[in-house]
Design goal:
The chain is built from 5 helices and 12 strands. It is α+β, with helices and mostly antiparallel strands and 223 residues long.
Length: 223
């Protein structure tokens, strides 16, 4: 197993770069990020949010109960900016905009997007061509529902490469990566980035990865 990397660590919080194959909590068939962090840091840590087992990238953990409450509240109030990268080899129903709808349970542990909007999952996105038939998607989730981004991509008729559960093409990995994380803490603005790994992500890096402020401006102009 590739170990996580510590991007930032202070008395209040830690930011880790999670490899594929790690769950946040301990499970029967995978390493637990919490257990690893506690062993490395020699103390208690609290998960402020989670990533799916095959998803890579930035995870924020609090180092005390007070920081956990405050940072979790920022997530609930949508004050923490998150940017994900995904790659698909299916033609999308649209190339940028928003995906909005309630998440409802489907079969075999899957979720699906409903047309109702009582408690909707909201994902804003743009995309760019990486190669003929291959598009890279910059995903800005405004909510944090289970499998939200994977379901949003499927709803666009563009399941993520490597996402077998939601109809993605076979690949060596799931091409979904938590790329950037930004938030304010005690009067200071923090912004973190973890570079994605994998063939199509390498191609995207050659072309130039998206800037979060430019993506936000583009989406605002589009509305």
């Amino acid at each position: 197993m590739i170990p996580p990397a510590i991007i930032e660590c202070n008395p209040h919080f830690c930011v880790l770069d999670k490899p594929s194959g790690w769950t946040v909590q301990e499970s029967e068939d995978s390493w637990g990020l919490l257990r690893w962090a506690r062993a490395q840091l020699g103390g208690e840590v609290f998960p402020v949010h989670r990533l799916d087992k095959p998803t890579t990238g930035l995870v924020l953990m609090a180092r005390n109960a007070a920081a956990n409450r405050a940072l979790s509240m920022q997530f609930q109030q949508r004050q923490i900016q998150k940017q994900y990268l995904a790659v698909s080899d299916h033609k999308p129903s649209k190339k940028q905009g928003s995906v909005i709808g309630d998440m409802v349970r489907s079969r075999r542990g899957q979720w699906m997007l409903a047309r109702s909007r009582e408690h909707p999952a909201i994902t804003r996105f743009t995309s760019v061509s990486l190669a003929p038939g291959i598009r890279g998607y910059t995903l800005l989730p405004q909510t944090g529902k289970t499998h939200q981004l994977r379901v949003a991509m499927k709803s666009l008729s563009s399941p993520i490469i490597g996402d077998k559960r939601y109809g993605g093409s076979e690949a060596e990995k799931l091409y979904l990566h938590a790329h950037r994380l930004a938030f304010d803490w005690q009067g200071r603005h923090y912004s973190f980035e973890a570079l994605p790994q994998g063939h199509w992500f390498e191609r995207w890096r050659e072309l130039g990865l998206p800037d979060s402020s430019a993506v936000s401006s583009q989406l605002q102009t589009d509305q």
